[in-house]
Amino acid sequence: MLLTSYFLAALAIALAWPTPLALSKANWTARSPVQAVLLWQAIALGGGLSMIGSMLVWGLDPLGDDLISALHGGWLLLTGDTSVPYPGIVHLFALSTALLFGFHLVLTLMRAAWRTSRQRAKHRQLLRLLSNPSQTRANTLVIDHDMPVAYCVPGISQSVTVLSRGLLTQLSAQEQQAVIAHERSHLDQRHDLLILAFTAWHEALPWLPTSRLGLDAVRQLIEMLADDKALEKANRQTLLKAIVTVATAATMDDRSSTPHASSAGLVGMPDGEVSSRRLKRLLSPQDPLSRPQRALVLLSTIMLMVCPTVLLIAPRLLDW
C-alpha cells in the first residue's frame, strides 16, 4: 500500500497549493459559477481525504493489504493476537497523525456550526427588538434604519429576509425586487452551509493556501449565483444600481449599531465591498461554458472526490 500512500500524498500537495492557486486566478469561474463551486468543494474534500488517507494507508500498511483487512489486523493486534506483525514507530506516528488530523477537522466543523447557530440565535433575539414583520412580504422583517440594508438569516425551521426602511424608501420597486430575489436565492440554495464548511476548513488549517483561497472564492461565487437569480426578476442596470447603493451605504455605516450580516455569520448583500470580478461580470457579461467544457469540469470534480475514496477503500489498486 506504500505506492498508494505516495500517490495520495502527491495529490494532497497538488490540491493544497498549485491547484487552488490556479483556480482562484481562472477567468472561466465567473462564466459558470455553479461548476466552479462544485469544483472548489471537490478540491477541499479531495484534499482532506488525500491528506488523511496518505498517512492512514502508510500507518496501516504492515497490518493488511487493504483498509478492511488492515483494520481487522489492528483489532486482532489490540486483542492480543501475536500472529499479527506489530507496526513500527514510524507507522504508528503516521496512523496517530491521521486520526488526530481527522478529529481536528471534524471538531473544528462542529465548533464552527455551534458558534454560527449561537450567533444567529442572538441575532434573531436582536431582530425581535429592532424589527417589525413586513406587511407585504412573507418571511421578511423590516428594521427602522435610514441606510439601505439587506441580508438574510438562514434557519432550520424558518429563514427570514431582513430589509431596512432606508432600502424601501431609497430603492425603486424594481430595485427592491432585485435585492429580495438576490437574498432569497441565498436562502433557497443554502449558501450558508457552503460558507460554514469553508470557514471551518480555513479555521482548521489557516496556513493552507487552499483553505483561504477557497473561502474567498466561494464567497464571491455565491454572490454571482445570487445575482443570476436576481437577473430573472430585474435587468442588469437595475441590479447594478441596487448593489452599488447597498454596498456604498454599508461602507458609510460600518460602525453603526445596526446588526450586519457579517457580524453574525450570515449571508447576503455585500457589506461595503463588491469584488471587481463580480462587477465586471455584470457590466460585461460573457457566455457560460459550453456543454463539453462543463462536462469536463464535472468529470474533474467527480474524479477528485472518487479517486481518494476508492484508493482508501482498496489501496492495493495502484500495486497491480
Task: Write a structural description.
This protein is mainly α and 320 residues long. It folds into two domains: 1-87 and 289-320, no CATH class; 101-287, no CATH class. 66% of the residues lie in helices and 6% in strands. The protein has twelve helices and five strands. It has helices spanning 2-16, 18-25, 33-60, 67-78, 89-130, 165-170, 173-188, 191-204, 209-230, 236-252, 276-283, 291-313, and strands spanning 131-133, 140-143, 150-153, 160-164, 267-268. Strands 1-2-4-3-5 form a five-stranded mixed β-sheet, with helices on both faces. Strand 3 (150-153) and strand 4 (160-164) form a beta hairpin. It is elongated and about 80 Å long. It starts with a helix and ends in a 7-residue tail after the last helix. The chain crosses the membrane at residues 40-60, 92-114, 295-314. This is Peptidase M48-like protein. Residues 94-238 form the Peptidase M56 domain. It comes from Glutamicibacter mysorens. Keywords: Membrane, Transmembrane, Transmembrane helix.
